[in-house]
Amino acid sequence: MGAARRTERAQSKRGADRVPDVVADFSGASKLLLRKELMDCRNQAENNFTERGERHFGSPSLGRVQNGCHSGTGETRAGTKLGGFARLTLRAAGAATSLLLSVAGAAQSPTYELSLRDGRVLSVASIQGDPARELEVMVAGQLQKLPAGDLLAVHGCAAQTIDLACATLLGDEVVTGALVGGDATGDHFVMMSPSLGRIELPVDRLHALSAPGARGVGDLPLPSGVSEAIFRRAAVGYDIVAGSLHEFGDRGVRFQPDGESEPRWFRVQEMAGLRLAEAEPRKLAPTAFLRTRTGDSLGITVRRFTSKAIECELENGARVALAYADLASLSFTGTATFLSDLTPIEVREAGFDGPTLYSWRRDQSVLGTPLIAGQRTYGKGLGMHSRSRLCFEVPEGHVAFWSRVALDDSAAGLPIAALVDVRVLVNDKVRFEYKGLAVGKPPRDTGLLRVAPGDRLALEVDFGAGRDLGDRVDWLLPVLLPAPDRQ
After folding, report:
1. What is the pTM of this model?
2. What tens digit of pLDDT does each residue of 384-429 get?
3. Do 450 and 364 have their domain in common?
């Protein structure tokens, strides 16, 4: 990271004006995040004073909020005329409240799907215990015990894409929420996640910090010779401000542009994002990968499933309690080998009458979104489009393959009805095939398929009865299972 980081603590001056206290009914992370969003809206409004004496705001941190805003009449229900800023504050309160309510709302009568090492899928009402020892799950009103290592994954609700700031760590780990702090030495920064609460993260692991509406900043290359830069929105593309990062805080990013004698604060809303070239990888591999309902994706250690929450340990040793309603998926490592963690030995892709519309992706749909089928999220898997073929060599110590397959839920919103044919081949012999896989149908199970080390295992997605439009196929949790004496 930049050697120019200063160690003096920045003095954060807070204005005397207060944001309307519409957050009294919120608690914890939601309350703090909502207060910050309202303050951002107020600051944005004050900076957008027009010659007509009206104030307008369009804070990107509010994203695609569609509900909860007051009408533009500037009148309360009693007919009292409000001033420009009062109208704006109420609109900001309504919009931010709508966003946080949609983010923080719990699912109705939640159930969870468990994928087990023997190829079974259980629908459970509750999970309790230590996954390193034994779990107790409630299945159809009956308590069942699962030995340690039997659980491959837990699938909860559909993960959402919310338009808040996003911190991306090296290795595609993501925390979504608001930047709320950091330390004066520039070693850590703090994100407020709607699902995970307040999380301290090491700056040395940071690949990119993206402002709301600019998640693609992490994919942008840095100019040659530049290791740290702020990207700012321009009329066309982005302006790049090269320089040195000093620290993070609730005011944003303290950054010294090249050619300037002192660092200054950049609010997250003023920029598209921050890119760092020297991010470091994890020191230790995680034992599980977590996806939350609000878009976080982190490697963790699950310490315990309790009646109320999942007790998780983060990379830095910090503990967080994740509410079950915020669980999208949890995939355990070490018990098997996920196909998405292997490199294919053969890739073939072609569209109906040209190149394929979308190329394959690891642990994402072909659109780059979470793998979601039947309103369930799958943290591990492969997104493929017709026509395509991925072939893998079975590594030592594995004797079976298992997966589920479905069209991604995103295909349901298309004006055409996608139909695809899917196959699993072992040494070019078809071992599983399903023709006419359609939108909205439940995932199909391949069953346990015998394999041996050195076998060529291929997944194929072919055109169905129509062309290739909408053929967004998700291979859900495709996994190679070890021999019994290695389990």
Report:
1. 0.77
2. 999 999 999 999 999 999 999 999 999 998 988 899 999 999 999 9
3. yes
11 within domain boundaries: no
Q: Give the residue, 92 or 263, on which the prediction is more confident.
A: 263
Q: Are 96 and 187 contained in the same domain?
A: no
Domain that holds residue 122: 112-155+282-332
Mean pLDDT of 104-123: 77
Residue 471, in any domain of the structure: yes
Model pLDDT, residue 254: 97
Indicate if 176 and 235 belong to the same structural domain: yes
Q: For position 35, what pLDDT does the model report?
A: 52
Q: Can you list the alpha helix ranges (DSSP code H) found in 79-127?
A: 84-104
Q: Do 71 and 126 share a domain, yes or no?
A: no
Which regions of 134-277 does DSSP assign to beta strands (E)?
A: 134-139, 142-147, 151-155, 165-169, 173-182, 188-193, 197-202, 206-210, 228-233, 238-249, 252-257, 264-266, 273-276
Structural domain contains residue 441? yes
SS3 353: coil
Per-chain mean pLDDT for the chain:
82
